[in-house]
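lol ok so funny story. i was supposed to be doing the assay writeup but got distracted and ended up predicting the structure for this chain instead. priorities right. anyway since i did it might as well share w the group, maybe its usefull for someone
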Amino acid sequence: MAKSPIVTSVEVNEIEFEIADITTEPIIGIPIYEKGSSITKKAHVLRINTDVGITGEYFGGNAVEYAAIPGLARLLIGKNALNRELFYNDFKQALRQQASMGRSQIDIALWDFAGKFLDVPVHQLLGTYRTELPCYASTYISDFDPGGLSSAEAMADFAEQCFELGYPAFKIHPWMGQPLKKQIEMVAAVGKRMSGKMDLMLDPVCTYETFGDAVKVGKVCDEWGYYWYEDPFRDSGVSAFAHKKLREIISTPILQTEHIRGLEQHVDFVLSGGTDFVRGDPDYDGGITGVMKLAHATEGLGLDLEVHVAGPDRRQTMAAMRNSNFYEMGLLHPVHPGMKPPVYQNGYVDNLTAIDKNGKVTVPDGPGLGVPLDWDYINAHTTDHAIYS
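and the output, tada:
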């Protein structure tokens, strides 16, 4: 019998990089396009080292999640690196008062290790369903720069550009804190231009102030046949009751559950009637292990799970799902090249032109998450490093 691979240490690299032509939106701090501005961002890379000389790696997550890594790392050291289900449940108990922060990133790195250990991509470990994924273009938050997404017509122009590139679907992220009339104009302008040509989605990022505002915008989505309406108002996307009431008033399908965490809460939300499509995110919902549990639970209820944002781990996970419609390519902008640092090798990118002529991307077929990290770039931009052993 082969020797069990044992975790010997956990490492975290914090990197820092500058993004040109981006500023910080003042309401909730989301980056938006602004020509001539720049911001400095931090990101993290997690490594789980083992006594067989193979390392599981993951680039992703935020500083709050990484604050939990030191405590969780101590629970891994000396344990079998293949015991992902055990770790998932132990961490769920250990983090029950900390919103499960940190366990997701460890889980994803452990899946990367398992794929490398067995020399197969993660989707084969999960059970491959497909290796090509249809994409929707997911926009930056609307901005105020004349060259950007600063008007309803500019957003409609960008939707048309994405359609011409081959995207079968397009999602609007509107302005934060702007008058409702302006928000409605954007939804209508994109609908008038592109309805019937591509599937349209709207994600207001919980910006509308009242339930009534959400209803007004939802009725405009109804008029133009939007595919889904996501996180409309300022309950932060967590009230099953409120979204059930919204579903009773408008006909556009609702997509919720980005802002609740884990399997049980998602199932409760669905059974309470709070959503049509279900949202899952490997960084929020317990890693690849957690998202696959969500996919299977929603499949059992006859619903679809839509995976949040882009990345190699998202592609691997979605490749093993039948009940998921679109890969979220983004965030995208008509003139800005993107806010993600070039941390991957082999030409892997998630950007405006990453799709093929049919609006799809392929699932990486290398071992683990499928794409090696560029450690020359990571080391050159590392500002802090910690190792736990």
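The domain at 125-362 is CATH 3.20.20.120 (TIM Barrel). The chain has a mean pLDDT of 97.
back to the writeup now i swear
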